[in-house]
Amino acid sequence: MTKRKTDGPLALALALCCAWPAVAQDAPVAAGAGAPVVAKEADRLLRDMGSYLAAADEFTFSAEVSFDHVLPTGQKIQFGGVEDVGIQRPDRAYVDWQSDLGTRQLWYDGASVTVVDPSTPFYAAQPAPGSLDATLAMVGKELGFTPPLSDFLQSDPYAALSASLRYGVYLGTSEIEGRECHSLAFVDSQIDWQIWIDTGPQPVPCKLVITYSTRPGQPQFSAVFTDWDFAPQIAESRFVADPAPGAQKIPFKLETTSSQQ
Fold this sequence. Notes:
By secondary structure, the chain is mainly beta. Helix content is about 10%, strand content about 45%. The strands form 2 sheets. Strands 2-9-10-11-12-13-3-4-5-6-7-8-14 form a 13-stranded mixed β-sheet, with helices on one face. A two-stranded antiparallel ribbon has the order 1-15.
């Protein structure tokens, strides 16, 4: 889950307009006054999931995603996508994103981060820090985008997911794609979100739904996780950027726009 605000005065984008779905990008915000009120079982299950992902040296997963865009008329339009992700801790990652709105590819090899929009003859690359956590922070703060579901790639997913919680409850179990999963619901300062976590020996996410409750039309982002693999033996070449032959390297570009807040 990513929570990055994208419509402020400083919006960063590739010169080739390579952007991730805006509905999945809002920056974390501070929780309200007072301690969060989170049910013990909800906190325990979220913590167990985070610990399980944090303990893995490498993993891959896929996610079937849907996300809303709200038109100026107020009408919500839903789009779909598929995301394939692989990481090797502490300094390797790739993200392949294919959606109704286009395709994006990201590679991080421990020294640089590269983003490609295969529909254009361009790619952008920039030196990156030596850890995945620092690189995700850098692309969010300096480059203005965050790959969807990047909280699950952090070295401490629980800390990333719980940083701004206000409320949380445990709702019992549900079946997601044939799997029995715990259902948890949380409220942050700007979003409501629900997560389903596998009840089996691997407490991985089954499904995630985010509602951007403070945005016009309250758009949603949802993801159903599949194909978790914690022994994938990812080839080193998979983390090496592979733009199309003849593609032109361009810089990430800072754009200044008027705030709509």
